Structure formats: structure tokens, C-alpha cells
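EI: anyone free to look at a 260-residue chain?
SC: sure, send it
EI:
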Amino acid sequence: MKLIKIPFAGGGLGKAESAEKGPDKVIEQMHDLFLNEAGFNPKFEIDEVKVDNNNIDETNKAIFEKISALKEKAIIIGGDHSLTYSCFKAFIKDNPGAGLVIFDAHPDLEVGLDTPTQEDYTRLLIKEGLLDPKKLILIGIRNWHGYEKEFILQNNIQYFDMKKIVQIGISEVCDTVMEQVNQWPAVYLSIDIDAVDPAFAPGTGYREPGGLTSRELLTMLQRLKKLKNLGMIDLVEIAPDKDVAELTSKLGAKIVKELG
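SC: here you go
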């Protein structure tokens, strides 16, 4: 499987400092992992998008071109969450009607400009008609603005905030999500590490208490991996300079290993 590094933090609005170091740090931690929990040792072919952390537009162009050229399933390691915009844009070009499942503490539906950032890339995908809001599922939300929630309700976007996840349980959430996305032509899965509680993943720009445990996230991802229409995955917002005892990069490595 392809493992593509995108060491870009230019879309992080100053909150993604050191996220550009995330891909290399996660891959470094993978060397200490052997078989995954399914009993396999997935092999990866590592590639990289050449980015310019001072030029968002040129970087987005480079990301789009690299992902557009892919002819196989891949896992992308960022970098800040703005990269999902160009990755999904490239993915849906060859997978019309595809949907997006996002694990994140935030909906990333801020009112922004025409250049994607980690806070507004989701709204931009919808605004540009690249993503049908009915094919967007948000999981793990626990900090959002009122206008973001209003946008969610107006556009009938399905979401599972942490309160709801605790109330109905992760098994029920997985069942509901999988039943829905099985009807889509293809699925893009995006994992912002801040979906996880900072007790388990402190190395990120936005530390939001009350999130998923690392075990809960891994269990949900192991379920979603079984989707036959799962086409592409990204893992973002790991910031090594903010980490504690390498907990976050180790979790990132574990996530990649389990999804490989």
C-alpha cells in the first residue's frame, strides 16, 4: 500500500506548528511495531508530496496532482487538516459521488475565504459542490461554534458528537455509519488526531478534553477498514513538538499499521 507524506502546516493558522514534522515522526515510530492486531505486517511504499509551507496555493496544486495520479488505495500522513481539501478534490475526480467520514473534535465549517485552512476546508468542499453534505459524517465533535452547528442542521449533515457517542455506544455508531456509507460509491476517511482525548494524544494544536480514548478510535477504525468501498485515508494534525513521551506519534503509527 502507498503511504504518502505531506509535511505541510501552512494551512494551520498558526495552530499547527510542527505538524509538518508529523509524517516522519509517525513513520519512525512504525519501526517499533510488528504484526498488527489482525496478525499481519502490512508493507508500505513511501512517497512524498513536495510542499512549500509558505505557499498554500502551490502546495494545494502539488497535493492535487500527486493524489490525482494515484491508481491504488493510499494512506496519507499530514500535516494540518487543510490538506484534506486537495486530497478529496483529487479523489472525487475518479470517484464521483464519493462521501467523506471525518473523525475530529471540530466540524471545520468556519466561514472562511477561498483558500482552504484547517478550520474551513469542509465548508469549502461543500460550497464548491465537490462534496454532497448528505455524504458527510462527522464523528467526535465536542467544540464548535453556533453558526457551524446551524450549518450542519440546515444541510442535514450527519454527526456524532461525543455526548451522543457516549449515550449510544461506539458499536451503535459504527453500525449506523457503515450502513449509510455502504450505499456510497466510495468513501474517503479523514482522521484528525484531536478526535482523541488529549490524555491519550497531547501532541496536537487543539487539545480538546472529553474525546475518544485511543482504544475506542482504533476499534472504530478496525470496523471501518472492512468497508469494501473505502478508497483513501488521511491522518493529520500530529505535532511532535507538542507531544508528551511520544504518545501521539506512537498512536499515529498504530493507526497506520491497523489500517494498512
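EI: The first helix runs from residue 22 to 30.
SC: 👍
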